[in-house]
Design goal:
Strand content of chain B: 15-25%
Order of helices and strands of chain B: EHEHEHEHEH
Distance between the termini of chain B: 5 Å
Radius of gyration of chain B: 13 Å
Radius of gyration of chain A: 23 Å
Shape of chain A: globular
Helix content of chain B: 40-55%
Distance between the termini of chain A: 50 Å
Largest interface: A-B, 44 and 35 residues
CATH superfamily of the domain at 152-454 in chain A: Methylmalonyl-CoA mutase
Largest sheet of chain A: 5 strands, parallel
Number of helices of chain A: 22
CATH architecture of chain B: 3-Layer(aba) Sandwich
Structural class of chain B: alpha/beta
Helix content of chain A: 40-55%
Strand order of the largest sheet of chain A: 1-10-9-8-7
Number of domains of chain B: 1
Number of strands of chain A: 10
Number of strands of chain B: 5
Oligomer: heterodimer
Structural class of chain A: alpha/beta
CATH architecture of the domain at 152-454 in chain A: Alpha-Beta Barrel
């Protein structure tokens, strides 16, 4: 690259910063180290080499290696968003309001397994599972309680929901209507990433084809009606939790992303209409510098793929905006307080990698859902990084490290090799249906386990520096009585609502599912008359059938 | 001497199968025959599979907290079907304080996070209820 080209890009970035500063000034007028040394917004190589602008460039500009915003955390910290939800809507609502009072800046809703798989809490298969790993939501009535006194025009809400994502989003929109908040004002995210459910997480319902159609319907509907909503969170988190390497996490996530974009484009949508609302979700594992490089590599690779393969032009379509969660699978049941330290390092890697929002795990999560004390420490960990550590005062502080840049290149290149291999199979849905992705992940998981057992990989407190078990003290439990109470509530709901309207709207949904009308307005009609999640999903099961997983072991 | 036959099962709605797959691979490497049920198995499906496959061992994994309901339910069905010579073990995210009740229900042993797979192999070999001859 010529020097003039570099100067031109530098000037463009500077102009963006000036514009941003006029509208949303940075957190401070002057940034200094703890000892008073000045800290610049961005540090650059003294003599930018030929490929600096091509490979690293400037924050907020292609290829986004150094971050997606021009000022990054000097402007605003990431959103501190703790994933929470358990038992009933009422109890979860209490936890959300507590977290918001403690300075959390966004909500993240965990649903129980019946909700995630589209069963009401009175379904036979829900026995033993109601309220266990998240909150139980079977109808709009539950959602109203869940979001009680939470102003939906001010808070952004992330919902970890996939196969029935459209239905839960419809409930959220309907609660907004009751609060007087228009759908256009709502901000938040639905996970809505079915492909990684087939490969890694397991809460699928329908087969891939109709699932992809529902996702495309959501993209199309939200582009017009809920424009500030992130319509998908393309997730590497669970791929990593299932045992993948960092390279596989990037590769399989982006391959899934490409499949969603292709499906939407094939359905006639324009890439720059829905592209800006795609978001991502990555894991923060324990190899600190590898993780930092991973986020940078993912950003650069995605930007290139979106530009080259789909001709995306809107910078927002090219950006990997992502949420991060620290690695649940790295938490140990042994000496659980050590997990506080693991989480802090992992969270720091996500911040140095430029995350847009972050969940820090609680120390007790290898044993149970987090207690209030544990979740508070986890949130404080983020606040310490943000307000005390100083890493937020300059953009992409590790750029230019020989090791970091080499790792970034290496992860990008190896991930791209995987993506090409997946292309040859016909794309991510095919690579998942034939079991390739699952086998790659489980082989990596087994190799890791063997390395831990041989002592080649040290896990403190597990295979080295072990100590006699010390009980953690308080753990959070969800009472069995939750299900019994929920069964009664649902019986009451079913007897009090207008069942004729429910049946009529479910029939209209069925008809739309058999044809190609967008399903989102039908979901809204159904939830508004208090059709339950189970009834809606059963209607679609009747049309689409259920996914049968291939055996991979 | 024949090989030990293990049914590795995922009861309930939990989709976390990393652990069960790693254990299935480790048991296989230790010379056992392993049949994996896949996800979302009811207690009935697991007990039927154990009968059909003539399993010596059932190894169940749950991370969702549903063990309190499903593990005892499996044991109840086992007794109904007279399968009292099958060794049943469990694992996953299971609080220490739940273990005594699970053992009282007939789960022979519970293995938590951080368990070495060799310990599971050894446990199975030493605690089979059936002869391999």
């Amino acid at each position: 690259m010529s020097n003039s080209e570099f100067q031109e890009k530098l000037a463009k970035w500077q102009a963006k910063v000036d514009k941003l500063q006029a509208k949303h000034p940075e957190r401070k007028e002057r940034f200094t180290t703890l000892s008073g040394l000045p800290v610049d917004r961005l540090y650059l190589p003294p003599e930018p080499g030929p490929d600096y602008a091509a490979k690293l460039g400037f924050p907020g500009a292609y290829p986004f290696t150094r971050g997606v915003q021009p000022t990054m955390y000097r402007g605003r910290f990431w959103t501190m968003r703790q994933y929470a939800g358990f038992a009933t809507a009422k109890e979860s609502n209490r936890r959300y309001r507590y977290l918001l009072e403690q300075g959390q800046t966004g909500l993240s809703v965990a649903f129980d397994l019946p909700t995630q798989i589209g069963y009401d809490s009175d379904h036979e298969l829900s026995r033993g599972e109601v309220g266990k790993v998240g909150v139980s939501i079977s109808s709009l009535a539950d959602m109203e309680v869940l979001l009680d006194q939470i102003p939906l025009d001010k808070v952004s809400t992330s919902m970890t929901i996939n196969a029935p994502a459209g239905v839960l989003l419809a409930m959220y929109i309907a609660v907004g209507e009751k609060q007087g908040v228009a759908a256009k004002q709502l901000r938040g995210t639905i996970q809505n990433d079915i492909l990684k459910e087939y490969s890694s997480r397991g809460t699928y319902i329908y087969p891939p084809k109709p699932s992809m159609r529902i996702i495309t319907d959501i993209f199309a509907y939200c582009a017009g009606e809920v424009p500030q909503w992130n319509t998908i969170s393309i997730s590497g988190y669970h791929i990593r939790e299932a045992g993948s390497t960092a390279v596989q996490e990037v590769a399989f996530t982006l391959a899934n992303g490409l499949a969603y974009v292709k499906a939407a484009v094939d359905a006639g949508l324009k890439v720059d209409e829905f592209g800006p609302r795609l978001s991502f979700f990555f894991n923060a594992h324990s190899d600190f510098l590898e993780e930092v490089a991973k986020y940078r590599a993912a950003r650069r690779l995605w930007a290139r793929l979106m530009r080259e393969r789909f001709g995306a032009a809107d910078p927002k379509s090219l950006m990997v905006r992502f949420h991060t969660q620290t690695a649940g699978c790295s938490l140990t049941a042994q000496q659980p307080k050590n997990n506080i330290v693991r989480v802090a390092f992992q969270a720091m890697s996500a911040v140095l990698g430029g995350t847009q929002s972050l969940h820090t795990n609680s120390m007790d999560e290898a044993l149970c859902l987090p207690t209030q004390e544990a979740v508070t420490i986890a949130l404080r960990t983020q606040q310490i990084i943000a307000y005390e550590s100083g890493v937020t005062e300059t953009i992409d502080p590790l750029a230019g490290s020989y090791y970091i840049e080499k790792l970034t290149d290496e992860i990008e290149s190896q991930a791209y090799d995987y993506i090409q291999k997946i292309d040859e199979m016909g794309g991510a849905p095919e690579a998942i249906e034939n079991g390739y992705v699952q086998r790659e992940i489980q082989e990596a998981a087994y190799a890791y386990q063997k390395a831990v057992e041989s002592g080649e990989r040290v896990v403190v407190g597990v295979n080295k520096f072990t100590a006699k078990a010390e009980p953690l003290g308080e753990i959070l439990r969800v009472d069995h009585a939750v299900r019994e109470a929920r069964v009664k509530e649902l019986a009451q709901l079913r007897s009090q609502r207008n069942n004729q309207a429910v049946q009529a709207n479910l029939a209209a949904l069925k008809k739309a599912a058999q044809g190609d009308e967008n399903l989102m307005p039908k979901f809204l009609d159904c939830v508004r008359v208090y059709a339950t999640l189970g009834e809606i999903c059963d209607t679609l099961r009747g049309v689409y059938g259920e996914y049968q997983a291939p055996s991979t072991i | 001497m024949r090989k030990i036959r293990v049914l590795a099962a995922k009861p309930g709605l939990d989709g976390h199968d990393r652990g069960v797959k790693v254990i299935a691979a480790a048991l296989r490497d230790a010379g056992m025959e392993v049949i994996y049920t896949g996800l979302r198995q009811t207690a009935e499906q697991i007990v039927n599979a154990a009968m059909q496959e003539d399993a010596d061992v059932i190894a169940m994994s749950i991370l969702s907290g549903a063990h309190e309901y499903i593990f005892p339910r499996v044991m109840e069905l086992m007794r109904e079907k007279g399968l009292d010579d099958v060794l049943v073990i469990g694992g996953g995210i299971i609080p220490e304080e739940d273990v005594p009740a699970l053992k009282a229900a007939g789960i022979a042993e519970v293995f938590g996070p951080g368990t070495n797979t060799k310990d599971i192999v050894e446990y199975i070999r030493n605690n089979l209820k059936r002869s391999l001859n």
